[in-house]
Design brief:
Blueprint (H helix, E strand, L loop, with lengths): L2 H8 L3 H8 L3 H10 L7 H11 L5 H9 L1
């Protein structure tokens, strides 16, 4: 499982992340299968994680954003 897939799972899964970020589930699914989350979506991901009390590893976030 990629880092993107781990993060999405930790945030409640594809549907939950899509709903919270107001994007189609197919978009989040493509992040999982592609192994990266677009850099410009990382603020939304970190905000969602904070609201859920999920501690995301900063190094993993940086790695994903660099792809």
């Amino acid at each position: 499982m990629t880092s993107a897939a781990h993060i999405i799972a930790a945030l409640g899964g594809t549907s939950a992340v899509a709903r919270e970020l107001d994007v189609p589930a197919s978009t989040v699914s493509s992040w999982k299968s592609g192994g990266s989350i677009p850099r410009w979506r990382m603020a939304g991901i970190t905000s969602l994680a904070k609201s859920l009390g999920v501690d995301l590893d900063e190094a993993v976030l940086q790695e994903l954003a660099a792809r």
